[in-house]
Design goal:
It contains five helices and five strands; from the N terminus they run βαβααβαβαβ. The longest helix has 16 residues. It is an alpha/beta fold. Strand 3, helix 4 and strand 4 form a beta-alpha-beta unit. Strands 4-3-2-1-5 form a five-stranded parallel β-sheet. Helix 1 packs parallel to helix 3. The radius of gyration is 13 Å and the shape is globular. It has a single domain, classed as Hypothetical Protein Ychn, Chain: A, CATH 3.40.1260. InterPro entries: DsrEFH-like, Sulphur_relay_DsrE/F-like. This is Sulfur reduction protein DsrE. It comes from Streptomyces hainanensis.
């Protein structure tokens, strides 16, 4: 059975420590060979856009753009459908490799045996 970690991050620049923790855990898990699915919801939705991660700063934390690259090298990043719509974000706007999907896909990812989900 393959290990998989699903992380839903709701925080963005409004709660930088919580946001950074979610991205850090996802990147470390991906680097460790664990299949990772990071879901961007709420204010973290903005990080699906090119350049937005470069604007994020938190002392003593890895750059968000580096963490995103690490996550994408060993996992998937998904932007919540409703969160994208509320912010006027369209599929053509997001970073390469980021998909837009909704609750049905999230539930299908967290239900199989061996999957662990975290919400930040």
């Amino acid at each position: 059975m393959a290990e998989k970690l699903v992380i839903k991050v709701t925080a963005g620049a409004d709660a930088p420590e919580r946001c950074s923790q979610a991205f850090t855990v996802a990147a470390v898990a991906a680097a460790s060979g664990i299949e990772v699915s990071l879901w961007l919801t709420g204010e973290s939705a903005w990080f699906a856009l090119p350049g937005r991660a470069d604007e994020f700063e938190l002392p003593h934390a890895a750059p968000l753009s580096d963490l995103i690259a690490g996550i994408q090298s060993g996992g998937r990043i998904t932007l919540c459908t409703q969160c994208a719509a509320r912010r006027g974000i369209k599929e053509e706007d997001v970073l390469d490799g980021v998909r837009i999907a909704g609750a049905q896909v999230f539930v299908s990812e967290i239900m199989p045996d061996g999957v662990r989900a975290l919400v930040y």
